[in-house]
């Protein structure tokens, strides 16, 4: 080799080495503080390429989904229908909790009152002829009435309901004990 060629060869090699060192320094300087060091290129493992399975023409037809049935379509939610239910759309369904809630208060007849005990008990007769005992706090009547108090000759039932304006209204209804015919004039 020529001296000139050897010198240019050394210059090229040293330029190449210098360029590599500068690049490495720049890469090392660009890393964020606290970031884990990058693994050397030799340690990076390559994943084996995944083999793709080509389905046979007959199998492709089996994997296709069938169109949804009518029941499935009905059970799916309508995305255009609002989920907000207005109170006027569906009136509340009130199911009677006790047999006495099936009747209007006007149709109940007070038959007897057990007075002089810690919690007085009254006996009322329903229009069907059956008798029921009631005490303070029991639900009575079809309008969610509650027994407020039991006195010697009457039962006071309180009904609370909300009007369309949103105002809560309280009504008191008395069921009186019928007096014997001789004492009717005394009341």
Question: How would you describe the overall organization of this protein?
Answer:
- The protein is built from three helices and seven strands; from the N terminus they run H-H-H-E-E-E-E-E-E-E.
- With 187 residues, it is an alpha+beta fold.
- The protein has a domain at 99-179: Roll (SH3 type barrels), CATH 2.30.30.
- Strand 6 (154-162) and strand 7 (168-176) form a beta hairpin.
- The chain has helices spanning 3-30, 57-63, 70-75; strands at residues 109-114, 121-125, 131-135, 139-140, 145-150, 154-162, 168-176.
- The strands form two sheets. The protein has a four-stranded antiparallel β-sheet with strand order 4-5-6-7, with no helix packed on it. Strands 1-2-3 form a three-stranded antiparallel β-sheet, with no helix packed on it.
Describe the structure in brief.
With 187 residues, the chain is α+β, with helices and mostly antiparallel strands.
Structural class: alpha+beta
Beta-strand segment tally: 7
CATH topology term of the domain at 99-179 = SH3 type barrels
Count of DSSP H/I helices: 3
- The strand line-up of the biggest sheet is 4-5-6-7
CATH class descriptor name of the domain at 99-179: Mainly Beta
Helical amount among residues, as a percent range? Answer: 10-25%
List SSEs in N-to-C order: HHHEEEEEEE
Q: Can you give the mean pLDDT? A: 75
Categorize the overall geometry: elongated
Major sheet summary line: 4 strands, antiparallel
What is the CA-CA span between the terminal residues? 143 Å
CATH architecture of the domain at 99-179: Roll
Low-pLDDT stretches: none
């Amino acid at each position: 080799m020529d001296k000139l060629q050897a010198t240019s060869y050394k210059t090229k090699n040293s330029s190449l080495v210098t360029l590599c060192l500068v690049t490495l320094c720049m890469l090392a300087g660009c890393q964020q503080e606290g970031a884990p060091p990058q693994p050397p290129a030799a340690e990076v493992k390559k994943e084996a390429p995944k083999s793709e399975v080509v389905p046979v023409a007959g199998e492709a037809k089996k994997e296709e989904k069938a169109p949804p049935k009518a029941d499935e379509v009905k059970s799916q939610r309508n995305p255009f229908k609002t989920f907000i239910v207005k109170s006027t759309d569906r009136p509340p369904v009130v199911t009677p909790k006790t047999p006495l809630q099936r009747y209007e208060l006007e149709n109940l007849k007070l038959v007897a009152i057990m007075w002089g005990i810690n919690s007085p008990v009254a006996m009322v007769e329903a229009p069907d002829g059956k008798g029921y005992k009631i005490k303070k706090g029991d639900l009575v009547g079809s309008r969610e009435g509650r027994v407020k108090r039991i006195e010697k000759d009457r039962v006071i039932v309180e009904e609370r309901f909300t009007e369309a304006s949103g105002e809560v209204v309280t009504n008191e209804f008395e069921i009186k004990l019928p007096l014997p015919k001789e004492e009717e004039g005394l009341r």
